[in-house]
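Open question from group meeting: does this chain pack into something compact, or does most of it stay loose? Before anyone orders reagents, we agreed to write out a predicted structure and look at it together. Recording both the input and the output here so the notebook holds the full record.
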Amino acid sequence: MELNHLKQLWSNENIAETPEISTEKQNEIHLPLEKIRKNMRQEFYWTAVIFVLIILFFLLVDMHFFKFKVYIITLVATMMLITSFYFFKFFQLYKNISTINLNTWDALKDLKYQFKLNEQYYLAFYIAFAPFVVCEMLLVFDYTPPLKEITGLRFILTFLATCIGTLGALYFFGKFWFQRYYGKYFNQIYKIIDELK
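Structure tokens returned:
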């Protein structure tokens, strides 16, 4: 008896289809998506060029400290590996943006989720550089003659201030960069999606 009642309720329930998104709203979303894709391409190419130039610089410039040169090249190569991992993640978003179907509400929710996830990846990308910054500061302090002479409490304070200042600059630069090249477009898309609710 209970089963028949449930079947009747189920058949009487009006199941709505996934709501369609108007062409006008799809076009509104398309423009920021294209800007995001363009910025992702540019960032990838510029990062690759910068890494190549850094490695060429350290390979071609004659330095008095061979160990310093080896340490720096090793650090830069390791940074390239970390960067490759994050660019792989960004490439997945890039690919999804080009293939996403913007005519359903579920697709827009998925897009919003992907943006939130990649925003976290971007933040983690900059956090991943903190150990490299500290290692580079150690090398600079160990191989730069004027800094090598600093000892005791003065060394500790100078080293900590330099590391904190550099990490702080990296953090603010990362936030600025993300907001300028991605965040404002993400926010435009979030606003459109929120209007459609």
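Observations to bring back to the group:
The CA atoms of residues 43 and 181 lie 9 Å apart.
Residues 14-18 have pLDDT under 50 and may be disordered.
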